[in-house]
Design brief:
The chain is mainly alpha-helical. Helices cover 78% and strands 0% of the residues. The termini are far apart.
Length: 139
């Protein structure tokens, strides 16, 4: 009995996880719950796939993609899942530019973080040298 319960619980835990692969599947029954989970968890790693889903032929996938992006970012950038293909394409371009800007901002943040880490290492090394100088002066 315990073994059966463990298998059921394990299945529930595994079934509740979202992977980037789920978002890339063409099956709406997999993609839609994956987008919902990503939005609920504020998972910003799936935004790129959601933007790609805005161009889907399936209106349900487009609907959940824009709803999830809105929940994550607070904007639709004028995208409406029911618009004709040309109007959607114009809004998708805005989303793609936004993604590009996010990538550049992320690179800048990483660069600034590395510079700050290097600065902290330099400070630590300087502090250590000062401490060793004080020790040698006291001796």
């Amino acid at each position: 009995m315990r073994c059966v319960m463990c298998v059921i619980l394990l299945g529930m835990v595994v079934g509740c996880t979202t992977t980037p692969a789920d978002l890339r599947k063409s099956d709406a029954s997999v993609q839609i719950p994956a987008m919902e989970r990503s939005a609920r968890r504020k998972d910003l790693t799936s935004e790129k796939q959601m933007v790609q889903n805005l161009g889907s032929d399936d209106p349900a996938i487009r609907f959940y993609a824009i709803e999830s992006l809105y929940r994550l970012t607070g904007t639709t950038m004028g995208y409406k899942y029911y618009d004709d293909e040309l109007e959607r394409a114009q809004a998708i371009i805005k989303w793609e530019e936004w993604l590009k800007d996010q990538g550049e901002n992320s690179k800048n943040e990483t660069r600034n973080s590395k510079q700050a880490q290097n600065s902290n290492v330099s400070r630590s090394q300087t502090d250590a040298l000062r401490a060793s100088d004080l020790i040698s002066l006291e001796a």
